Each structure stands twice: as structure tokens, then as C-alpha cells.
Recover the amino acids of this structure.
């Protein structure tokens, strides 16, 4: 199937373009020959775009005018063509802009269909030494704003993150592979328990189990809820990391990384990995929407990435086959290295500090049953001189889930000295704060400026202060030194941040010293603003009770919901609490019983004798068989006694009975003839043969029909209709 894409050429306001040309070339071709072009364009809006008259494979504008956006369809060439280069040239005023690289050129390559969606990264042996410690941070981007189609407002969430650092001999999951039972339970139920059990069974191949909490709801601003994170270590043998988390509710959709290699070819450790994530299908459930009922995939299919063409009901469906909008991003940062390293070249100053550190920071030994707030910023040092003092930070115990396990202190102390003093450089000088920067050395262009500080207290041993008292930096004033530019002062110091904690804004100002010499307006900005980050806001955090037990399921059978709650224990006047106090999840009980359902009773049959005592029967059919312990079906056949005229006895009895029957038939035939003469336009076909009995035993029914052969068009003969007769059959017990 040919792939069709929508190609958009756009300019960001206030930029624009009047004309353009758009072509698609095979990689390495110049476009001199017709066979150099790849694929075909399709016009969407003829008032905006058209094919070039002298080059019908290229697209250009219909009329030259100001525009900021055009769109066309492009159908990819057959498989095997190779990479394609989409090139655009634009006309703005009388200037033509063309870029061989950059935003006006895009390289598109086909993906080998045989390996599409399959994890096929060659995993090399690792030559790095020592160990490295990383922090994984997960940023969800799945919300009603970014993915509005059928978004599940009430139950949207990310399940708990589960993964590990491991060797190449153990793979948690991979594209083109089959989901294990642990992966299946994460994908369908959001439960990491089985997955963690599988990981721990591979103890020789696993270094660290990676775990992070679930997120309910799926997205909240970072100033309300921090992104979930987890720390893990790698070594030469176990240098890969994998993780997954369920996008819920969903049939079996997840995001994650598989066998991400953190070892470099230079025998070092990767410094940072940033990966945008799209959802993938575990191949265990065939649902197509977020809240599709359970529909196991039999046989199980391979793990594959979701696409925008999977199913029209899919929330990610795009009839044009565009790419799926990203639902999450994961950032993996190296935070420490330990032990002798093979690659001794540090990546940045942080690595130098990490390499010089004699010991890696101690692991946090806080029990999992103790829930704390984040640490507050460090307080000012208790000493204002170069004598040793202390500084303190605090945290709040929010919940103690197990009273038998003691929780560590809520205060932490650290030795310190006053401003300008440091143990590391051996200085005991006490310095003042820096004085404001001097004016720039030039009034137009690039110059320098400086600032100073002074020694407030010299060392007691009479030694010289080695701390610098002056520093210089470059400065730029009035970048454009021309008659049309205006002269301005240097930027003033930044105002204080608008926020005392968290994220705020700060501003700085400058003044116009001289307007442009040519009399034009001064376009220089006199105010500049940027974001500023203060220490994390540490109002008294929410003090919450442990979660209650899950409530009973909302139904007694089938699918329902259950909830659990917790209480806010801290006083409301201490600040707003954004922690959720109630959670809900799906629950499943045994299927509901289905009772037997029957049709109405049929008419009683004729008496089974022509004289004396006999019986009649009537029947009914089973519409729905009982299931899951539902009420059993009652009788479907009933008998009742009947009595016809008394049977006559004697030698002439049979003859007399035959004579009476013959006269009855003649009388009925005569009545039919009269009816036909009176209503000649309503004629019936003879009775059909009886149908087969509906059951082999236990009482069934047979049917036969008499169809209208000719029907009157007059409204007064409405009784002329098809006829139907029923009778009982196979009434013997089964």
C-alpha cells in the first residue's frame, strides 16, 4: 500500500512568503531528468497551489501574494527507491531563499518492512570500568489537551514504572518479541508484581530493579506534582536498562525503553539520554479504544508500536497516516561514577568533581513505609565568620505506614563557615558581597565591565588572602552602531524574582540615551524579562493518613468499580493540599447469572382422537439457555385431556362414520365454492407439507403454510391473508 503524507510549508509570524517551489528528489540526484524525481504530489487547494507548467512534477503557487502556510499531499514512491529529499524554495519580495540543509529541506527514508517495529540494535560488549549511577525521570504528556479523542477523563493514569538494569542475556521486552506473563499483567492490569518477580528471578543478569510510583491522574503541572523518578546503577556486565509503564485505561498499551545501552564505544558511560515515547501494543488484547471490553488475542501476537492507521475507532487514528503524537518523554542522566574508570576524559566540570569525590554519596536508607516531604533548602550558616558553624535542613513526616518500623529524623545538620570562607581552598578570609558592575567601557559595540569586593576579615595567622577581589566580563551596548540605531544605557541589575519560592519572573531595564540620528523611531527594547527559579516551595506539606482498604466492588457480579480513600490530617489553614484523597479502579467479579427465557405457549393442538377420550398438547421454545448458575428452564410441553363425542358401537359403525365424514367434506367444499363465487379475487394455494419437527424428543412443533394466490386490491377484503398451522410432534420423553 502506497504511503500518503501531508507536506506543510509554513512561516512563523511575522515572516511570510509570496511564492514557492516544492520538489521531491531521489537522494543524490540533481533533478535534471524526470527519473530523478520521487513520488507524486497531489493538490489540496487549487486557489493556493498548482503544478508548474514547465515542470509538472513540481508544485508552485497559483497566484503570488502574501501567505504563511500551504499544504499538499505527497505519495511515497515504491519500496526500494531509497531515501527521498523534499526541497522547497521560497520567494519573499524579490529575494529567493533556498536551503540545501535546514528547515526548507527534509530527508525521508523508507523503513525496511521486514524489520519494522522490531528491536534490532546490535548489543556490543561493554569495555567501561567501574560503575555508573543514573537517574530516570518520566515526563507524561498524555492529557485531554494533547490527545482529546475519546480521552478517559475519570480514570486516566500511568501505572507504576517497573524495569531494571541488566545484561544482554536477559531481555524484559522487545519489539517483535512476545510479552511474558509479567509484561502482560503490566500491559492489561497495570500491576508490576509479576514483572518484578520475573526480574528478581534473573538475579545474576540484573544489577538494579527500577521502580517508581503510579501517577493519578496521568498529567499534572510540574509545580503541582514532581515527575516520577528512580535511580539505578550499571556495570560492565549489566550495562543495559529497560522499563515499561501502562497507559491506562487501555487494552494492553504501554510505553518504555528496551535494552538501552549506557556504555559508550570509548569505554565510558553515556552522560544523558532523552527519548520521546509513543505507545506500543503488547499483543495480548485486541481492544481498539481506551475502554474496550476485554478481548484476549488468540493466538498471542508480537509486541509492536501503535500506528495512526490501526483502526478507525482508535484514539490515535489519522486517515492520512500521520505519526502518532508523543505521549511521554524519559530523561536518563548520569549522576555519579564510582571506582576506577577506563575513560579518564571527563565530559564536563561535574564529571571532574565526581571523579575527585572519594566516595559516592550514601544511599538513602529511608524505609519505604516512611513517607516524607522533600528536604527544605539549607539554612544560613550559624557562623558569620570563618569559624566552624552548622546549617540545617528539615523535612516533614507525612505518613508512617508501618508503626513497627521506626522512621529516621526529620532534621539534617552539616558543618559550614561564614561567607567567603572555604575548607577546600584553605582560605580563612572573610569577604564582602560583590559591588555592582561598573559601566561598560564603550557606548556602542562590545566592551568590558568589572566589579569588586573587599576583605572584611584577614586570616589570623597573617597569611595573604588568595580569594579574588575583582572580576571582569565582556559587555555589549548598542549592537548596531549606525545612524538608524539609538544609543541606550547598559542593562541594569535584575530585579528580585517575583516569587519567593518556585518559578517566577525577574526584569531588568535600560534607558534611551540618544534617539537615532536619522530621526526614525528607536526600536531598542528598554525592558527585558526572564524566568527565575527560587528554592522549592516548602509550605507545610500535606499530612495524610494511610490509604483505606479498597471498597467492595460496586456490582455483585460482572464489571464494576471500587474506591479507596485517605484523610487530610494537617490543618487546612497551613496551605492548600493538592494530593488526591480518593482513587478508583476497575474490579471484576464472576459473570452475572443469566436465567432461562422462553417464548409464549403455542395454541393447543387438536384432540388426538376422533371420538371418546384423548389429549391435546401445547409447546413453547427456549429463547436463551441458562448460564453462570441462572434459573433452569421449566417444562416446554404441556398436555391436557380432551373428550370428543361418544364413540358408537355396532357392525354398521365404520360405514356410518365414513358416510358422515364424506358428507362433511362435501359440505366444506360447497362452502368454499360459495366463498369463491362471492369473493373471486381471494384465492389460496394448497397447504404446504409439514416442516421437520423442531426437536427430536421432549415435545417439538411442526408448521405448514397456505399462501395467498391472488389478493383483492379492494380495502374491503382485508381478511385475505396467508395462513399458518402448528401441531405438536416428537412428544415422547428424551
Amino acid at each position: 500500500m502506497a504511503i500518503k503524507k501531508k507536506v506543510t510549508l509554513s512561516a512563523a509570524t511575522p515572516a511570510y512568503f509570496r511564492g514557492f517551489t516544492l520538489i521531491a528528489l531521489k537522494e543524490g540526484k540533481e533533478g535534471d531528468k524526470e527519473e530523478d524525481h520521487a513520488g507524486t504530489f497531489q493538490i489540496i487547494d487549487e486557489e493556493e497551489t498548482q503544478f508548474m507548467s514547465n515542470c509538472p512534477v513540481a508544485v508552485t503557487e497559483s497566484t503570488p501574494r502574501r501567505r504563511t502556510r500551504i499544504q499538499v499531499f505527497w505519495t511515497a514512491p515504491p519500496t526500494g527507491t531509497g531515501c527521498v529529499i523534499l526541497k522547497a524554495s521560497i520567494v519573499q519580495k524579490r529575494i529567493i531563499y533556498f536551503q540545501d540543509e535546514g528547515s526548507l529541506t527534509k530527508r525521508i527514508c523508507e523503513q525496511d518492512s521486514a524489520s519494522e517495529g522490531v528491536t534490532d540494535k546490535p548489543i556490543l560488549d561493554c569495555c567501561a570500568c567501574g560503575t555508573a549511577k543514573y537517574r530516570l525521570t518520566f515526563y507524561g504528556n498524555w492529557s485531554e489537551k494533547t490527545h482529546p479523542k475519546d480521552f478517559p477523563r475519570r480514570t486516566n493514569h500511568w501505572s507504576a514504572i517497573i524495569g531494571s538494569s541488566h545484561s544482554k542475556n536477559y531481555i524484559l521486552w522487545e519489539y517483535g518479541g512476545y510479552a511474558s506473563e509479567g509484561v502482560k499483567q503490566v500491559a492489561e492490569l497495570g500491576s508490576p508484581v509479576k514483572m518484578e518477580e520475573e526480574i528478581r528471578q534473573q538475579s545474576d543478569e540484573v544489577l538494579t530493579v527500577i521502580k517508581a510510583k503510579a501517577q493519578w491522574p496521568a498529567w499534572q503541572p510540574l509545580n503541582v506534582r514532581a515527575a516520577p523518578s528512580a535511580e539505578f546503577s550499571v556495570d560492565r556486565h549489566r550495562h543495559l536498562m529497560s522499563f515499561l509503564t501502562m497507559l491506562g485505561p487501555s487494552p494492553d498499551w504501554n510505553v518504555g525503553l528496551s535494552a538501552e545501552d549506557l556504555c559508550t564505544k570509548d569505554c565510558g558511560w553515556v552522560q544523558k539520554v532523552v527519548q520521546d515515547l509513543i505507545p506500543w501494543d503488547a499483543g495480548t488484547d485486541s481492544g481498539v479504544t481506551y475502554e474496550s471490553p476485554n478481548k484476549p488475542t488468540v493466538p498471542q501476537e508480537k509486541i509492536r508500536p501503535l500506528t495512526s492507521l490501526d483502526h478507525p475507532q482508535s484514539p490515535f487514528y489519522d486517515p492520512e497516516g500521520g505519526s502518532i503524537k508523543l505521549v511521554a518523554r524519559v530523561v536518563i542522566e548520569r549522576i555519579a561514577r564510582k571506582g576506577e574508570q577506563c575513560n579518564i576524559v571527563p565530559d564536563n566540570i561535574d564529571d571532574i568533581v565526581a571523579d575527585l569525590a572519594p566516595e559516592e554519596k550514601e544511599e538513602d536508607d529511608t524505609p519505604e513505609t516512611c513517607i516524607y516531604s522533600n528536604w527544605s533548602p539549607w539554612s544560613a550558616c550559624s557562623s558569620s565568620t570563618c569559624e566552624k558553624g552548622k546549617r540545617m535542613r528539615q523535612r516533614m513526616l507525612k505518613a508512617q505506614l508501618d508503626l513497627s518500623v521506626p522512621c529516621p529524623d526529620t532534621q539534617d545538620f552539616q558543618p559550614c563557615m561564614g561567607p567567603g570562607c572555604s575548607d577546600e581552598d584553605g582560605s580563612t578570609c572573610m569577604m564582602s558581597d560583590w559591588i555592582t558592575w561598573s559601566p561598560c567601557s564603550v557606548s556602542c559595540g562590545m566592551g568590558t565591565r568589572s566589579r569588586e569586593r573587599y576583605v572584611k576579615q584577614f586570616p589570623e595567622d597573617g597569611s595573604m588572602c588568595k580569594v579574588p577581589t575583582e572580576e571582569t566580563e565582556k559587555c555589549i551596548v548598542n549592537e548596531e552602531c549606525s545612524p538608524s540605531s539609538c544609543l541606550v544605557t547598559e542593562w541594569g541589575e535584575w530585579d528580585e524574582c517575583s516569587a519567593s519560592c518556585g518559578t517566577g519572573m525577574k526584569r531588568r531595564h535600560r534607558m534611551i540615551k540618544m534617539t537615532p540620528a536619522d530621526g526614525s523611531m528607536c526600536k531598542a527594547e528598554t525592558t527585558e524579562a526572564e524566568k527565575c527559579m527560587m528554592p522549592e516551595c516548602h509550605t507545610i506539606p500535606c499530612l495524610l493518613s494511610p490509604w483505606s482498604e479498597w471498597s467492595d466492588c460496586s456490582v455483585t457480579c460482572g464489571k464494576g468499580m471500587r474506591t479507596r480513600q485517605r484523610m487530610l490530617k494537617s490543618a487546612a489553614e497551613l496551605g492548600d493540599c493538592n494530593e488526591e484523597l480518593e482513587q478508583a479502579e476497575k474490579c471484576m467479579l464472576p459473570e452475572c447469572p443469566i436465567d432461562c427465557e422462553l417464548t409464549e405457549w403455542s395454541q393447543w393442538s387438536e384432540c388426538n382422537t376422533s371420538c371418546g377420550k384423548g389429549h391435546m398438547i401445547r409447546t413453547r421454545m427456549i429463547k436463551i439457555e441458562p448460564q453462570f448458575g441462572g434459573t433452569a428452564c421449566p417444562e416446554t410441553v404441556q398436555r391436557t385431556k380432551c373428550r370428543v363425542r361418544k364413540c358408537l358401537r355396532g357392525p354398521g359403525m365404520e360405514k356410518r362414520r365414513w358416510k358422515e365424514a364424506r358428507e362433511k367434506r362435501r359440505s366444506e367444499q360447497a362452502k368454499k365454492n360459495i366463498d369463491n363465487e362471492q369473493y373471486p379475487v381471494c384465492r389460496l394455494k394448497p397447504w404446504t407439507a409439514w416442516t421437520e419437527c423442531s426437536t427430536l424428543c421432549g415435545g417439538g412443533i411442526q408448521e405448514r403454510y397456505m399462501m395467498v394466490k391472488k389478493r383483492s386490491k379492494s380495502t374491503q377484503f382485508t381478511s385475505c391473508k396467508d395462513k399458518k398451522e402448528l401441531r405438536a410432534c416428537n412428544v415422547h420423553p428424551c
Q: What stands out?
A: Residues 148 and 315 are 8 Å apart (CA to CA).
